[in-house]
Each structure stands twice: as C-alpha cells, then as structure tokens.
Amino acid sequence: MHWGAVKLQKLQLKEGSAVSGFQETSTLVNEKQPMAKIRNKIIALAGQPNMGKSTLFNLLTGLNQHVGNWPGKTVEQRSGVFTFDGNRYDLIDLPGTYSLTANSPEEVIAREYIIGEEPDVVIAVVNAANLERSLYLVSELVCLPVPVVVALNMMDVAAREGVIVDAVELEKALNIPVVAITATQSRGVKELMKVAIEFSAGRDQCHPNNPEMTSRIIALKEEVQTIIKGYVPTQYPTDWVSLKLLEGDTEITQLVNRNLAEDSRKQLQNVLRENEDAMVQIASSRYDWIGKLLRASMSRPGIGQISVTEKLDRVATHPFWGLVILALILGAIFWLTFAIGSPIQAWLDTVIVGGASEWVRGVLSSAPSWLSGLLADGIIQGVGSVITFLPILIIFFASFALLEDIGYMARAAYVMDNIMHTMGLHGKSFLPLFLGFGCNVPAVMGTRVIDSWKARLLTILIAPLVPCTARMAVIAFLGPAFFGSKAILVSWGLILFSMVLLIVVGIVLNKTIFKGERSAFIMELHLYHIPNMRTVGLLVWQRSLSFLKKAGTIILTVSAMIWLLSYFPDGNLNNSILASIGRFLEPVGRWVGFDWRLTVALLTSFPAKENAIATLGVLFGSAANTGLAQTLASTYSMATGLSFMVVTMLFIPCMATVAVTKQETGSWKWTLFSVTLYLVLSLAMGAVVYRLVGWFGG
Q1: At what angle do helices 487-512 and 321-336 cross, to 10 degrees?
Q2: φ and ψ at 522, to 5 degrees?
Q3: Which among 222, 366, 410, 670 is most buried, taking Cβ atoms within 10 Å?
Q4: Single pTM value for the model
C-alpha cells in the first residue's frame, strides 16, 4: 500500500514561505465559539524532545491554542484547534518522550493519552538527521491500537549533515505513511495533514510492520497473557501489557498486580523473576528492526566527514571557550536590553505614562481628589510603570526563545557541568536553572528531569538565585537611573554576582545538608538547526500576553491597594496607613539604606517582582512629569540605589515560585527554609553593599 510519501522537491513549496495552500484552508478559530455537538477529530503529536513537535504545533494552531497542565500533573499540556479543508481538528502536543516505558511522568502521560483517549491518528515526529534514535519511539507506537503517521522532519538539517533519507522506501519498510517535511520552513505540512487525515479514516486497515520478537519472547509473552487474561482493564491491549511486564514497566506491573488474584500474582512474579533478561532481548529486537529500516531507507555519502554540528561543538562545548561563549551570549542579551529596550522604556515612562497621568488629572480636576488620585497615581502610575517593562521583556523573551530553538541550551548545560559538580550537581541541573532566566516557576518545575531527589531538592533551593526576567527588568529600569552610562557594567556585575552567590550557596548546602552526594551526567546534544521565527514570535507573544494579564490583575490590584493605603485616612502620604506600616518596618530597612517607601516597595514585590516599581510609581506619582527613574535618582544615593537592586534580586521569591516550591517538594519545611534563606541572604548582602559603596563615597 502507498499513502503518498513524497520528497520535498515534489511539494513545490517555496523555501521560507508559509504552508502553501494551508493558510487558505486553515483559519484561526475563536475558542469562545460554542463547541460543536459532534467532537472534532483528534490528532496527537508524539516525538522525542527537540524533534520539532512544537514548531509543527505552533504552525498549525497559531494563536488558537491552550497551555496548561495535565490533570493532576505538573507536566505542561498544549492543545489547539485548526481548520483544514473546511473541517475542524483538535491537535494535542504530547510531552516529549524517548519511549513509552514508565520512566518519567511525560512517558506515562503520552501513552495513557494514546491508549485512553484513542486519538484518530498519531503523528510521530522524527528527526531525519538522527533517525536511529528517533525510530525507537516509533517502534513502540506502532504496537498500539491507533493509526500512526511518520513526519520525517528536519530534512534540511539532514541534508546539511550529509544524510539522505528516502521517505518512500521508509514507508514501504514500515507499512505506514511517511511524509518528508521541514516544519521550520513550512515545507510538506499541508501534505502531511492530508495524508494523516485520510489515513485516520481507514484505521481498521492499519497493519504496520511491528518489530519482530524472538521465539523465546513470543512464548514468554503468550505465557504472561494466559496468566493476566481477564484481569487487564479493557482499554489496554493484553499483548501490549504482556510486553511491558516483560520490560519491567513499574506502572503496568502495579496496575496488573492490583487486579490479579493472589495465586496468579505469585505465578506472574515467578515468570518475571526467572526471565529478568527479557527486557534486554526486547530492546535488542527493536534495534534490529530499526537497523533494517535504516538499511532500506538511509545513506550517508559523506561518511567520515566532519559535520557542521561537530565543527560548531568543538568551540561551543570546549571547557574554556564554551564558558566564554556562554558569557558573551548573556552579555549580548544585556547589551541589547540597554541599547534598545531601556531608551524605549524611558520614553514610555516619561511621555506616555506621565502624559496619561497628567491628562487624567486635568480631565478629573473637578472630581473628588481621591478619585483622580486613584486613577492618575494609583492605576496609571502603578500599572503604567510596570507596562513600560514590556520592551525590555520582549528582548529577554526573544533572546532565550532563539537560544532554545537553535539547540544551544544543551550545550550550555554541558559546559557548565564542571561548575555544577562543585555543588554536588551535574550539567542536567543547569537546564532548569537556565530556564530561571525567563521565570523561576518553570525552573523549579523543570527540576523533574533530575533523577536524584537530593540533587533535585538542592536545585529547587538555589533556583531563585537565577535572576528572572521580572527582576532583570527591575534592574534594567533602575540601572540607568543611578549609574547612567555605566548601567550595563553594573547590571552585568549584579548578574555575575548572583551566579557566584548561587555557586557558593550550592556548595555550602551540599557540604552541610546534602552531604556531598554526586550523580552521573548523560545528555544528548541535538543537532543545531535554523530557528523558526514563527515559533519564536509565538512564544514571545504568549509570554508578553501573560505578563500583560498579570499587569492587569495582580499588579493592578496591588497598585490600587497601595494607593488607597497611601491616601487614607486624611489624604496626606506622610500620615497614611502605608506610611505607618513603612515606619514600623523602617528600622530593618535602614540596615540596607532604605527609607519606609523603599521598604514598602520591597514587601509588595512578593506577589510579583514588578510590584516594586509599581509601588514606587504610586508613591512618587506626583513627580510623574519628570519620570520615575529620574525622581528616584534625585531622591536616593548611589549606595541606596545599588543596595535596593541587590536586595530586590535576592529577596524572597515571588508568590508563584513559593507555591510551586511547596508543590514540587511536597514539604512546608523546605518551602519555609527557602523563604527564610532568601530573606536573610538578601538583607545581609544589601547591608554589605550599602556600606561598601558608602565608604567609597557613593
């Protein structure tokens, strides 16, 4: 049977263009529309990490997607809707997974969804440049009762690496559809969806060439099937369950043991105990199957030649130059922030926010003073000061999205491995820490990739020392105000200081609490590829929108509360409830050079770090015509300004980070330990910085 596997040149799509013909039939669907009574056909995307699933998902769904968590799990769930040839389809982006054996929450979710929800078709996204590794997951997918279509992605990368894959021959060998695509260039996607949808209609005629097992494994599987017959939930294929039991799958073993009678359970345990090597034979059979597929469909004319990825990695993963490159990349991001983002932010702060505030005062000149003050100083100055961060945040979001899409993050983890070992960790811990530059919440959640519980807990505890975009935006706002042209050096120095402190704290915790435990580090370095600007742009849009939603909810609420507390009881700021709270805490703030206003601003940063600037915007709202940054610079010394920047960067993590710390550790003890650690650390470092700068005349 032939389902129309095609080579890229037959698709007649222009390089770099949108999906030719797809945009005409694929329109964004408003999720607010009433749901149809008849369910949409469901298409699931499966594949290993960094195979291009997300690129394909974003290309098809655009902005019409939902991001949340799988029920009862901290694993991200991405679903969307798209229209093709006049019909609506639900698209599910399954978590990236290397296999369907229960070694991680991602693997359990992927297989449970496929088995339990029975999507109409599963598109297995594989890397044409690294086909051997990619096909292992396919070897497991074809054993499930669901139509599977292979998306042979990254054909451009394969060509650059000297790899030639014949999609037609691979299709013949698999006996399921194979479509060659390059998702980053929108090539082949229209053909892929056409083939997948047509194939799903004939799911009863789906007969893939499954991996051939040895006679011994076949006999063992039949023996296990006999034992468990009648005790397996109906949604699970009995032959598949038998194979998973022989592979030592813990989830399936527990599932079966819960249902089996006592004598059958003992019989099953004896069979599995006597054949513990069965999992090795099963894996060998899968790799033999993969070898046959590769011999039929793939060739390497340039074998022995050094690939582009290898050439780049000679520098990017070098013990010394790799660290230099990482430092230069981060430095370039901060330079772009100050060179492009800061001037725009300053203009927005002075002209737009300040102008809007003055305009509201003029319009409401005859209204009660509390009303005009609430709108002009509380809402516009508070929320507006935070919204001016957006140009800075867009640069951060775009920069880190590009690094992730190019494939650099794994290299960064590799070169950081030696440094991480000083803390009893390894390079894998750097990946969630790297995510912390965007937001500490996914950094804490990302620690699930770490196998050792102690290493994971240590990574969770030090993750807040990575300055997130919100804190870096605060630094980017205050830096030019207090240090002018030297703001780049000061800000870079603060980031470096935070990283050094992370290492020091990690070493101390590892030597004292975690007793120097170490573990091995194994990481796959995927091939470099050209980033998909659509994917990057969509990610920037989603994160920017999330920031604006936070500005319109949490920050808006806090800004209004702060202003009301600063106004009542008599309209005089110095006599207000907020001033009373600030003066009560001011003795603590004085240790780090703060007056009551800075102390209050620091406290309000707990719900969201941006609130620190929002609060100052409210408290100094009357000086809106000069801009908040200029007002702060004229009010406080350089020593106070630097101290506030240091304390803000090290202060108690935001409310969301604290909540996810409790969720991931399952312990109030470690959560409160984290809060206490950063409270003490921030005030101690702030006091040291304030006095050192003061001694030098700052």
Answers
A1: 130
A2: -130, 125
A3: 410
A4: 0.65
**215-299 under CATH 1.10.287.1770, yes or no:** yes
Whether 341 shows a pLDDT value over 90: the answer reads no
> Any idea which fold 8-205 has?
Rossmann fold (3.40.50)
Give me the mean pLDDT over the 388-396 stretch. Answer: 81
Q: Which of 509, 501, 517, 540 is CA-nearest to residue 424?
A: 517
Residue 639 to residue 598: CA distance in whole angstroms: 13
Report the C-alpha gap between 442 and 75 in whole angstroms. Answer: 10
pLDDT band for position 626 (50/70/90)?
low
How far apart are the C-alpha atoms of 351 and 625, rounded to whole Å?
8
* pLDDT, position 484: 86
CA distances from 413 to 427, 442, 461, 555 (A): 5, 16, 18, 34
Strand (E) or helix (H) holding 242: helix 238-246
User: Average pLDDT over the chain, rounded to whole?
Assistant: 82
Structure-token pair, residue 294:
């590769």
Tell me if residue 125 falls in helix, strand or coil.
Answer: strand
What are the residue ranges spanned by the domains of the chain? 8-205, 215-299, 321-517+534-695
Counts for the chain of helices (H) and strands (E), in that order: 35, 9
**DSSP-assigned states of every residue in 360-406:** HHHHTTTS-HHHHHIIIIIIIIHHHHHHTTHHHHHHHHHHHHHHHHH
pLDDT bucket at 668, cuts 50 / 70 / 90: very high
Residue 610 tokens, joined: 């941006």
State the Cα angle at 426 between 673 and 413, rounded to 5°. 110
Q: Quick check: 626 and 346 in contact, CB under 8 A?
A: no
Residues 450, 522 contacting (CB under 8 angstroms): no
Find out whether 321 and 332 touch, Cβ atoms under 8 Å.
no
